Amino acid sequence: MDIVESIDDIQVQYPPEGEFSSADLQWTKFGTAEHHDDVAKIPYDRVEEFIIGECSNVEYPTRFHIERGRKRSRGSLKEFKIDEYLEYRLYWCSFGPENYGEGGGILPSRRYRLNTRNRAARPQSMRGCTCHFVVKRLYAHPSLALIIYNERRHVNKSGVPCHGALDRDALGPGAKKVPYICSEIQQQTLSMIYLGIPEENVVQKHLEGIQRYCGSDAKVNNMASQYVQKLGMIIKRSTHELDLDDQASIRLWVDRNKKSVFFYQDSSEADPFILGIQTEWQLQQMVRFGHRSIMAADSTFGIKKLRYPLCTLLVFDSRQHALPVAWVITRSFAKPDILKWLKALVDRVRTVDIGWMLSTFVIDDAAADLDPIRDVLSCPVLFSLWRVRRSWLKNVVKKCSGIEIQREIFIRLGGIVQSIWNGLDSAAAVEDFIKDFADQTAFMQFFKDFWLPKIEMWLSMMQSLPRASQEASGAIEAYHVKLKSKLYEDSYLDAFQRVDWLAHKLTAEVHSCYWLDRYADEHDTFQNVKETYIASTSWYRALQIPDTAVYFDEKDNLFAKVQSQKDSNISHVVWNPGSEFAFCDCAWSLRGNLCKHIMKVNMMCENRLGRKSSMSYHSFSELLTALWRKPLDDSIELDKAMALTRQILDQVQRLVELTSAKDICTVVDNLPLKWASRKARTAPRKPLTALALASTSRNERNNCSARKNYRKRRRLSRLR
């Protein structure tokens, strides 16, 4: 739209009789290229009808009050410009300017109260709305009015709707009588709506939550029902497309969700696109379950379908299920870029817990750069085989016909990985494998194109890093499968190429799903949700299989049979038992997953004599052997190794004592005493925080100056 610099170039509009709004007018850009507003020229006697029409907005019902006004008498100006006013009035939406809602900065309050009829009375209605316009009665043409709309949207400073049907936090009329709704109840209600739970059940659970604070009341029940309907309407009407251009849309999303973004870098010629997402609840779970524990990465999700691959950082909760605590959307895996978002994430966590640290980090990609992990997190790194195992098994089943051929190829692939610990030549093993199965052209073409160029890198990484356990690999894979079902169920396939869709999907549906899982487990509610959550990993399902349902081949140790718990007439055969590359004929395993039958058989193999050890145990044994052989006798290296081993032994003993103790008091009584200072040895005291130390030092300086002034006054009094 062209910018007009003269009011004379703006046509006078004559809307139809009755009330009308801004939607009924044609707006013109007036001003300069640097600063311009939307303006319209109408007869002055139609201004009141315009204001009434603006107040009757369906999506944002409100009232406009006069924030500021000035008048001039006719003939007071000898010389005037064409846009000088005879009357000037600034109309502001009555849901502003203070902001008591979430999001946006605090706008300055008015210094005085305006005695106008249209002023909203309650402070709860001051939501920070920035919608306002100016009405000028023109000095040169008193019969005409110039409407200057500075902000036509009813949004706060962050660009988020702050009242009306699209506002998540709007209190609406009768705000003083609305029952207390804490963030936990609101998140519970949102999660249930996102998961498609019927509205009647959502209202019932919502009522149970608010009745803990304000009791049962017919009016409260009615308001709770309206609240749930409003949230449902908001979710249905909300859209991820804030702008037709995806890059502009994600900028708006980041600006509106600053609390959930720990790092953002827009794409440019020099820098790649990086978006780090972490909600406040995820931050709490990262502090809770990540401190002195294990964190893992599902590093390259959606590398073929999504515009930008998704990396998920996971911690393991109280049931050892993988819990997403951060999402990073980027295509760059370069060391400087990883350092940027990883340092930002750790700094954010340590603002909550300054002593937060990891024990171990698990990776699943051999191409991952280990230096940023070791530099920032300062912890050992483990390697998980779940990704390579899943890729090989899925393509073997897909591209090879006959379950016997599929079994033999998959077991041979496992043998290639096993060769790095048996002292065999892995390159020769790969060459023999290609020759022996040359007739399987479809799979061999896939293997040569995608795996042969990088097989040496993967085997080298597997040999250099300790293996992650079967339980950890199964938990990471369970998260991957669940995330895949949540994201790829969307029928709008074009959305896969939009970052705003991915960010919206993660923070809305995926976040709500995991929040409700944890809430149901911790509060023993939503029994169906809780049972599904507990049984979501193959490790837990394997523990439910009794040992008597497993039968081993005692003759050649080639296979094991697991009897089905649902139908005793059905048994599943697990070939190559005891290995991470065991092959099962159940439907879940043939989709590429690590099934419960393989996990159960491998659990029992650990306690059976004559069974080969797992790859995780092989790597652990090699690590211990390397530590044992490294130091020379009577050397400083031996002293360092001895000190480190002693430190590890002490930590293991304390952990065993803590987990086996029935009463925590017995553990606390055996801890060594730590004196805070000499003066405080006879009384308990709390450790000083940085703020307390700063205030203490300031108090000492003030006391010191006071003593000096007191001595000076005493000397002066003696002289007198």
TrEMBL record:
Residues 708-720 have a biased composition (Basic residues). GO terms for molecular function: zinc ion binding. Residues 569-606 form the SWIM-type domain. Keywords: Metal-binding, Zinc, Zinc-finger. Residues 694-706 have a biased composition (Polar residues). The keyword Zinc-finger applies. Residues 694-720 are annotated as: Disordered. This is SWIM-type domain-containing protein.
